[in-house]
Design brief:
homotetramer, Purple Acid Phosphatase, chain A, domain 2, about 30% strand, Metallo-depent_PP-like (chains A, B, C, D), alpha/beta, 8-stranded mixed sheet, globular, 6-stranded mixed sheet, 14 strands, YmdB-like (chains A, B, C, D), binds fe (ii) ion, TIGR00282 family metallophosphoesterase (chains A, B, C, D)
């Protein structure tokens, strides 16, 4: 069993490359279950209802989110219509949407795996949500009972918090992967307790911008310290993510492989 | 010509693995010039005079620093004794030490290359130093005239700032590499203008800690939000960095290769 | 009935001026109950067991704390011996100490008032504790049942968070006052619902430093951006705080008066 | 000679109360020169060209700004048309507008005073502008030569930075006053070297909001951690500021008086 997980899909270039390439990637890598992070899918800022539908027409099983989750305000109301969308669990209740859910994945051999997908936001250099460590701790017993696999998108900035959370989940979660920095890290590994871990899986979108945004706009902002309207970068694109090969007997990751594909876009 | 650059050397485990392996790495990869980041070499906190001497007894040409540079207070006075140490250029003047310097590297073919090594700190989620973009801009003409190669250690947290700085230097600097997050990124590449770039080259030190620190201490800190004394992690170690292959005619990087070595340590 | 509340007591100068003047202030203003903030009482950093005892030998009924609460590590163990010490409620559980408690205050006319004192930390520009708004909300019913008066020390940096919390508590709490910035604000008032409010009650300690610290050290730190060891300022001192006049029938504040006393210290 | 300085004018309620009351205040307090902070005059976000004109039709001599200065983008171009507008000096050059300027003030006795007004932004918990201490230091000699009085609006969040800057300027500047927190502090005084100082002069605008914004919106934001569109508060208003009485012989402040006026607004 193989699980494909793709990093923050950024704007139209990110959505378009998935439309073009996702089916191909899934067949090439014999993928059984696909998760993407969608917090930047609508012009870099959140996920509109229309773009959510568009993405979920592709073979995507779950969309996780992050700090940009509510930037398209309509999602506050429409998120209830999308059982596949998971937003950070550590928003204070009551909050529209859900922070984790269970998804069934039927394998080619007829076996069905129950996958719990969790989305959490870090605290360091991030908005003031509840502590992800203390949010997760009391749920661990219950969640594990109802799932064969637990996959956690830990959406955070600081490497220290991400690594610490990976160790905190080691032996309990199937995999903990980071999102949010939009740059893939090279530290993928299976921790001592068997949990697959990587600090950040990267971004799916324009290569030549600054984490998605037109680079000249960001350089100008850095030089002048004056606000600018952000515009999505154009040009070539990348698909960033990981593939988790699952040992179906043990329900553990046998291999975590980084995916870093680049594509030329016709001008 | 090959240049070896190693990420933040962390504590005794980091210093020890360099003592054991650096000579071997240099000969294996036919390295002509070696730069390390030393801001965490003394127990994670700065660089003591003694440890500076110890490291510079190894075949290291330059030590760059970062936000921890002044944590061993004695270095404020002794840094003047170490021409090989470069601290972030964007500290306000007057400040002990220097933010860049020129180093001669004699190649096996008798040619001597003049290498300018620059150290800069980012501003986002970092201490309030001067803007690295505006600090660098007025120096570009002068520095380039006196050097065959310009290598920049951009010590910063935010991926956006690091990538933007890479593009800002593209076509001018030989290479811009990030340090500070202690996690190597997988985005190494040669930008359009010919500058080699990577968001972070990673850390040289204990693998099983949290960016160098004992992991249980950090998990406890995250759970309790109470202060703890940090202790360097024990166990296996890693050497993280990059190798820049230089085209000696063009004085440009022909290849940037990530180095991610792990070593078992006897208990 | 009059309640005296004094802002962050800073170091030895702060403790000493209380020893000299507190009894006098209490009799001058006919005070029935006294609360001080003690997070900086020991050299600016937390509260040692010895200094806690020393302060509680004075006519002080309650000591509230703040982000510095655990800087004297011994307090983690000895706080249990001091029923009068209240630390921020929004530390994750389990945490030594308590975030609120009920205190009996016998008035001169023989009536006894039950006073609930709460300590909360803000989140903006502060350590990552739980949300004070969401921490407080579920406790409101229970606390009010057991107390005649509820007094809240809201230890926070941002004026927006402090004012918003004041309004949030308006009509429920007897008084909400801010601490932490060490500078008294001039916005004391009684909100529409009857809750007394002030953004910050100020600091009790040296006048001529920078929020308690020797001023030249702070200016040097600002100019050089290099770390310095902080030393408590010397010279003249101030006592900052508020006096709440309580309507004993309504159990509401009838008047909130700022106290801003300065004292010359012999050299 | 008396100088009136008013804190951040917030939105339409702030502009309107100035239209209604400024002339009266000026005559009541025999004011010779008036400075206001205008960074929030247009709906809380910056200063539009139209609102700048509107304010400068009132007897206002200088408008200082802050971190919101460029939120009305048109001001980037029109600021050149307004010699009375001063924006933070520590924006990187080139930047539209100016960080200080000299203004002539003719007194009733025929004497003309040259007043240098400076605007600086702090760094702590603020956008990454250049260090205000190091920006100011090299200008001190020149500025003082051309001015009888130097008045500095130090727009900053942290009390430590504001107080330290006050001491840094002590004996050189005529007055240093803080803006940005929108809450007036009670620590006005004349420092040892003769410089008048106050940590924050407060806000001119709605009383019953949260630093200008409708309070329920801010409470909701605090409780839900989800973004909200900010709306200016309605209801009663305040004028906050200071009056500096100047000794015309010594060109020093003889008295600094806080102004904290409240006005009922018809519903
Ligand atoms: Fe993202
Ligand atoms: Fe994000
Ligand atoms: Fe480091
Ligand atoms: Fe660092
Ligand atoms: Fe304090
Ligand atoms: Fe504090
Ligand atoms: Fe403002
Ligand atoms: Fe401001």
């Amino acid at each position: 069993m193989n699980i494909l997980i793709l990093g923050d899909v950024y704007g139209r270039p990110g959505r378009r490359i998935l439309k073009d390439q996702l089916t191909h990637l899934i067949s090439e890598h014999q993928i059984d279950f696909t998760i993407i992070n969608g917090e930047n899918a609508s012009g870099g800022n959140g996920l509109s209802t229309k773009n959510a539908r568009e993405l979920l027409n592709l073979p995507i099983d779950v969309i996780t989110m992050g700090n940009h989750v509510w930037q398209q305000k309509e999602l506050l109301e429409t998120i209830a219509d999308f059982p596949q969308i998971i937003r950070p669990l550590n928003y204070p209740e009551p909050c529209p949407g859900k922070g984790y859910d269970f998804f069934s994945c039927e394998l080619k051999n007829g076996v069905t795996k129950k996958i719990c997908v969790v989305n959490l936001s870090g605290q360091i250099f991030m908005p003031n949500l509840s502590c992800p460590f203390n949010t997760m701790a009391p749920l661990m017993d219950t969640l594990k009972k109802s799932a064969d696999l637990v996959i956690i998108d830990f959406h955070a900035e600081a490497t220290s918090e991400k690594i610490a959370f990976g160790y905190f989940m080691d032996g309990w979660a199937t995999a903990v992967y980071g999102t949010h920095t939009h740059v893939q890290t090279a530290d993928e590994r299976i921790l001592e307790g068997g949990t697959a871990y990587i600090t950040d899986i990267g971004m799916t979108g324009p290569i030549d911008g600054v984490i998605g945004v037109d680079r000249q706009i960001i350089i100008d902002t850095m030089l002048t310290k004056r606000p600018n309207r952000f515009v999505t970068a154009t040009g070539n694109v990348q698909i960033n993510g990981i593939i988790l090969a699952i040992d179906e007997i043990e329900n553990k990751v046998s291999k975590i492989t980084r995916l870093y594909e680049t594509y030329e876009v016709e001008k």
